[in-house]
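To assess whether the prediction recovers the assembly geometry, we first specified each molecular entity separately, as shown.
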Amino acid sequence: MGKLRYLPPGTAPATLILPPEYQHVRPSKSLLEYDAHSFQEHRVETIDDLFPYLESEKISWINIDGLGDIEFFQQLALHFRIHPLALEDILNLGQRPKVEEYDCQLFIVLHMAHERKQQEMKFEQVSIVLTEKIVITVQERSGDVLNPVRQRLRDGVGNARFMRADYLAYALIDAVIDQYFPLIDSLGETLDNFQRSLLDQPTRERINEIHEFRRNIARIHRDVGLQRDVLGQLMRDESGLVAERTKLYFRDCYDNTVVMLDHLESFRDSTRNMMELYLTSTSIRTNEMVRVLTILASVFLPLTFIAGIYGMNFDPMRGRLNMPELEWPFGYLFAICLVLSVTIGILAFFKRKKWL
Amino acid sequence: MGKLRYLPPGTAPATLILPPEYQHVRPSKSLLEYDAHSFQEHRVETIDDLFPYLESEKISWINIDGLGDIEFFQQLALHFRIHPLALEDILNLGQRPKVEEYDCQLFIVLHMAHERKQQEMKFEQVSIVLTEKIVITVQERSGDVLNPVRQRLRDGVGNARFMRADYLAYALIDAVIDQYFPLIDSLGETLDNFQRSLLDQPTRERINEIHEFRRNIARIHRDVGLQRDVLGQLMRDESGLVAERTKLYFRDCYDNTVVMLDHLESFRDSTRNMMELYLTSTSIRTNEMVRVLTILASVFLPLTFIAGIYGMNFDPMRGRLNMPELEWPFGYLFAICLVLSVTIGILAFFKRKKWL
Amino acid sequence: MGKLRYLPPGTAPATLILPPEYQHVRPSKSLLEYDAHSFQEHRVETIDDLFPYLESEKISWINIDGLGDIEFFQQLALHFRIHPLALEDILNLGQRPKVEEYDCQLFIVLHMAHERKQQEMKFEQVSIVLTEKIVITVQERSGDVLNPVRQRLRDGVGNARFMRADYLAYALIDAVIDQYFPLIDSLGETLDNFQRSLLDQPTRERINEIHEFRRNIARIHRDVGLQRDVLGQLMRDESGLVAERTKLYFRDCYDNTVVMLDHLESFRDSTRNMMELYLTSTSIRTNEMVRVLTILASVFLPLTFIAGIYGMNFDPMRGRLNMPELEWPFGYLFAICLVLSVTIGILAFFKRKKWL
Amino acid sequence: MGKLRYLPPGTAPATLILPPEYQHVRPSKSLLEYDAHSFQEHRVETIDDLFPYLESEKISWINIDGLGDIEFFQQLALHFRIHPLALEDILNLGQRPKVEEYDCQLFIVLHMAHERKQQEMKFEQVSIVLTEKIVITVQERSGDVLNPVRQRLRDGVGNARFMRADYLAYALIDAVIDQYFPLIDSLGETLDNFQRSLLDQPTRERINEIHEFRRNIARIHRDVGLQRDVLGQLMRDESGLVAERTKLYFRDCYDNTVVMLDHLESFRDSTRNMMELYLTSTSIRTNEMVRVLTILASVFLPLTFIAGIYGMNFDPMRGRLNMPELEWPFGYLFAICLVLSVTIGILAFFKRKKWL
Amino acid sequence: MGKLRYLPPGTAPATLILPPEYQHVRPSKSLLEYDAHSFQEHRVETIDDLFPYLESEKISWINIDGLGDIEFFQQLALHFRIHPLALEDILNLGQRPKVEEYDCQLFIVLHMAHERKQQEMKFEQVSIVLTEKIVITVQERSGDVLNPVRQRLRDGVGNARFMRADYLAYALIDAVIDQYFPLIDSLGETLDNFQRSLLDQPTRERINEIHEFRRNIARIHRDVGLQRDVLGQLMRDESGLVAERTKLYFRDCYDNTVVMLDHLESFRDSTRNMMELYLTSTSIRTNEMVRVLTILASVFLPLTFIAGIYGMNFDPMRGRLNMPELEWPFGYLFAICLVLSVTIGILAFFKRKKWL
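The predicted structure of the complete assembly is given in tokenized form:
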């Protein structure tokens, strides 16, 4: 789980407060306009830069990277009738993936996955506002996840430019969700490597690493699961903003999340297996050591006793039964034979018990 | 779980009995009246003090802190048509969070969280009666959780004064529920610290502490979960007392409880991991001790046996094979070399087994 | 679970067979008649004693304590049109709590809890037949659980006498279910005491006691859970026998069962924790013993070896290297110093490992 | 689970192949005809023997014991319009309990339990075809489970002969399901005995026996659970073949299966408890042995060391500090006192640790 | 789980990319045409080869084995109006079993099981497009799973040729699903063998083998479970493409998957039992070794001490109490008797503890 983000209890709803680390990230804004025949891209500074373009019948995509300009967002909300609660969710990061219906608008929150290096993952909130002709996307920072969609629009590849705003929203959501594929793939590889090395080095830190895996898997599972629910809602959307034929595409994307979840669940089973393996290997090691200890003690305790017997200082002079062995010419040989036969007997016992 | 509170079996329903510790807490009562243009605050002593104000078209909020005046509550119930069962629930603490529909009224019970110090938490019951124009709140004791709402009304901040009684109820519920955010946050921090110190000091008391954490998490999870259900019911309310646009605010609050539950579930996983870690660390410690014991015994048992052999009292005089070593000029050196080579052999064996 | 009670396979349905221990318990029967203005109580012997009273518009409650008169029950069923299957359930004990709708009748089975002493609980079946104007209750034996209701009717306390037969049924069910409160309360107390004593005396019998607790909790949980379902069905009753305003009372009673279930679930968690605690304390004890053993062996094995060395019988006369220590004037001191320094070294090693 | 029975992949649906062990069991067929006033029983050889009787308004029950006459079944299916898939299910054993609706027919599969001896159970498939006036039952072999129903019809006991074919089907299903009562009862008894003997003889075979119990319980639970679902479907039947008043009887039978499931679940808990008990008893035994070992080693290692000290051969002649004890007149007594005081000290230490 | 297959994030939907290992597998295509009276089989090379045949009223089955001809698939999609997303799913392997409704078409994905040898399983994707008169099947490679259906059509066996395209689709799906029967059967046998050998050789590799079983069972359970859902959807199909009487056949096939799932679940229980057995057997072995060690140490530690006592060098000359035993004529016998009596005492103690 990321950090729990919350405003002080009792704060009025729809209060806009930015986490400090985002306050100085000036948003970069752009506007894309297209229809089947044309495509235009504009850099935008203020809210007024937008108006000349929005009158036409074209589909518009307003993309905002960065949150550090509350006033801009307030104007945006005013002009595009974004509900104060939706605006709050855009700026107050830490929302879970969800889709909410407002009057003539769908408000969608997704999590975008970045894998920096092995095991360290970063997630970012992406907010999407879908109206009839306009799609507004807000990212925490500039990123390249949505670039392929922009490029496909620019190139007019496939049917991208022939379809409506809902299809654009689909393409953006699909791009965000596909991002989890390489993440899960590399997680699976790391798990495999880890499992292979587990038996060789079952150190105590391993436990923490397994727990770390579990936490990561749970984290991703939760995100993907919620995003599956978002897609499920869009697939069955009744607001009228999603056309029937676009729903087929959402269903396709939904299928991808289900495949992801299947893999994550098998990862979960793997970590459970690893934990078992780890615990067993500890208990087997103890077992083996106790075995060695038992065998050694079984052999040497009797031997030492025999040696002790003949180390006693009874005086053979005092009586004929007083350690006559000490006086025998082959007493030492006798003692050694005794020792050897006891040893052999004990080892035979262990052999029969299959402990040797 | 708190104490199980119940009246003697067979008591008539809607019987009003106060727990003894509340009988002498005289309630302090206040009335707030407002509309878009005005705001008034009155201190109230008896039920009759209320009537001059309630005729107007304004929204009224009657707040009662303390339960120790059953007669007042009976008059209140009479005048505001509060159902006897709802009144019983207000006074008979130990209700679970819930919302119940009565004729033209919603009766809502919530739990309010106070964190006193580390690990010690107190919960208090808040009852809310929502009618078309009036909101009645009853708390166990005077507290400051609802103050921010009062302050926002006083200041006319945001749209608080423009909206209806249902929005007031929302603002109060939101204030109560937001209280869980800092609680959960500090619980998470305590858990982190605990986990870090667990490996260093895996004493037996740790188990009890982990169980204590579990109990607290279960307790809060249950409360928040029930409160999420309350909000879910209010979001889908069909009594007509909650306006459509207020439902959007309840949905926002519902989202907060879901985020809380997510965090609590990850805490739950953490305590499970801790338990595992604890148990493993015990078994690893045993394993390590057995390892030391085995190595030591393996080295010294054979050595002691060798020393025992040459401590035997066979008389070399009696025969040429009777411990001739004792008579050798370098017998002692021979014995020491024997000891050293046995030691080296055993250590090499353990080295190969990776036990050293 | 109680004993599994069943009739021989292949028995015709609705066959009336009494368990032998109930055959000789002659039922004691009484009739209560009341309306808002009057209240009458009659002792009844035969079915004919009932008829003079049932014609009026008053509400009647027929209470039967004991089952040992099959003929009486058959006449009762005939006159009040009780379905043969319902009659079978009344007499064939071992039914689970349930509510069944028959033509113009509700047939309700509940379990009544008696706590005799610590840990020993007895449950009894109560059957309730609710028609428009008549309530029939059948208990296994005479008991005082329903007495408070009788008393309230007699005294005309509250609104008891103003309401219909469905409210009487509610009052009876409420009295039965409230009986679980003290039971659960005392179970919780016993659990607390047990947990406190667990660490002091972790004997083997403790396991059986924990299992016994679990069984009891499961038993009560199951009963209360089924009774919650019964109340849920009555709350949503569509037979027309339960008035809307009575349903509010059933909802209140339903709430009580939910609170009970919450407590029982937290008891369940407690037993799980206890089990863990128990198992851990065993493994910690083993760990501690192994620690003592390892330290002792580590100290004394080397020492004994050193003593053994100087007990060897090599003859210092035979060569200058043959145990010259034995001839030294301070040889003994040297050996003692050797012993002390080895001891100190080993203890230092354990100190550093934090095993001391 | 029984053997997995299946036809070779790619076989056409509704192919009739009999398991070899059933091919030579010639079915014995009988026809019962009855109405309120009459009852007739006929032995039947060929399909033509049936026709004279089926024209009347009476209820007919055709019972077939044994499967080894595919041709007969094909004619039966043809004349009574049994669907090829239903016919396949009758002959291809290994179906799960289920009810299927075909045109004007209900096709019901049940499992019949036989308990041969302790722990060894046999299950048999019973197929029932219910049409408006005719009930056809097919059993694997002749058996006496359905006899009581036949006898009740013959005797005209109860209302058996007054009701329709659906009631006959009920009576048959009830007879089959009641058969599980003694099975579960004896399983419970076996479990109790087992549990009592577990602590005395915790041998390794016990684990296998617990697993065997689990498997049996799971097996019966699954069968009864599926049969509960069958009854649930019949209770809510909408094909028109089951009359409303018969549904009350199915509800009664459904209740029985629920009671059975309750018992089976408590058995399941018992086996879980037993497993825990078993594992704990192993770990407690190890613990106890380690305790004895530790105490013994703690006592004798120091003693042996002391004895070893005074067995050293330092020559008291060489210096005044060279083992002067050996020359003391009470040296031996001194050594013995040393030994005793060390022993007492160590035992006191263990006493304080509560290990003694 | 198989490999996670995915296209680079941001790829346009419905992009056709073949995994490299499939690019050079030229598909072999065939067309079957039949009605009640005729049956024809054609080998097909290009899309144009198909058209002469499709005009008639006959049912057509187009079977394509191999994917390495994207252009052909694109033409196919164009002519038979296969949706781009369905086409993508046909070629982009790694889809889960599912059924999707497109305009006038059902698109079904199944997994086909091949068991190569013990424990190694291969799964292949089969895509089926069902329209009113045409069924198109696409397999990864040529295989013989669908051959029996082809043969039944060729031979006109049963009612195969009398029914519509939906029945053909059923027959194909049934053939694919029946393939899991022998797979599950042999898995069950392998499990039985494994379990039998587990107690004899509880080596560490066993854990990995159990996990491998679990993974396989989970894999098959998931496939069969999803295929059950596919059949459930077809059973309740509302697109009009599946006739009522065909639905009965799908129900029959659905029943088969449920039986499979029952078996797989009992396998799952078996692996859980095995794991328990394995862990227990390790802990029992340790227990037994500790027992042997304890007994041995208990016997020999005291004996060695006694021998050590009489090995002390106190000089009996110095005082009458200085080891007088050494001077006794029967001192040695006395010592031996002492040793024997101690041994007997200790063994008696263990006997009483039931450790011997």
